[in-house]
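Alpha/beta hydrolase, pasting as requested.
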Amino acid sequence: MTWVLLRGLMREQRHWGSFTSQFAQAHPHERIITLDFAGNGVLYQQASATSIGAMVEQARQQVRQQLQPQLEQQPAHGKIKLLAISLGAMVAVAWAERYPDELQRLILINTSLAPHNPFYQRLRPANYPAIISTMLTGSQRQREQLILRLTSHQSDTAHAERLLNDWVSFAQQYPISRRNILRQLFAAMRYRAPAQAPQVPLLLAGAKDALVNPQCSATLATRWQAELRLHPDAGHDLPLDDPDWVIRQTLG
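Structure tokens follow.
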């Protein structure tokens, strides 16, 4: 069986950090695939998609390419499990809606979805000024500092400087353009999730998410009759703040 890990807005597969290796150790008999959406990571020179549906098709193509030899030998093993955070979770929901037979499991981390969640919960209004000014005019380091502050409690730890340096290095090697940032934001803003969950997901959320109100996940859990597991202390980037906790949820 295969797990596919999907990251969020402006993030690439390296932003999973050590989580990927820890996750692989906890799932020794399963394949782990991490992807970059167009405009991010190794695909930074490509134009980002302007719709979540297009992101689904891009992700599916990458997965199929990596699994093709396996599928030819064992077609029955074609189903995958999705673990996705934020924007990546929108892609996961759209994937499940379009191709329900391809997925065995769906785990969504700190996501928010129109029309179920109001705009002021999907992105906390207090962050608007900093996000607009820093994302559009700030330096790479200022941008990464803001992302770290808004998405993780690691900004207050001894590891913050090393983590920030890593992220700045990623941004310098594969710089995301402001145009692609706007294209990804546009895709997220225009996406509308189905009224009923295409596949009942497991929802994970950090109670101290400074970017997205965790009430978004609570609302989705109620409307979709899905299970919500709330971390009492983690922020938006749950796999960064408490990777062990997230991995334990995937084992159940």
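Note for the archive: Residues 2-251 form a domain with the Rossmann fold fold (CATH 3.40.50.1820).
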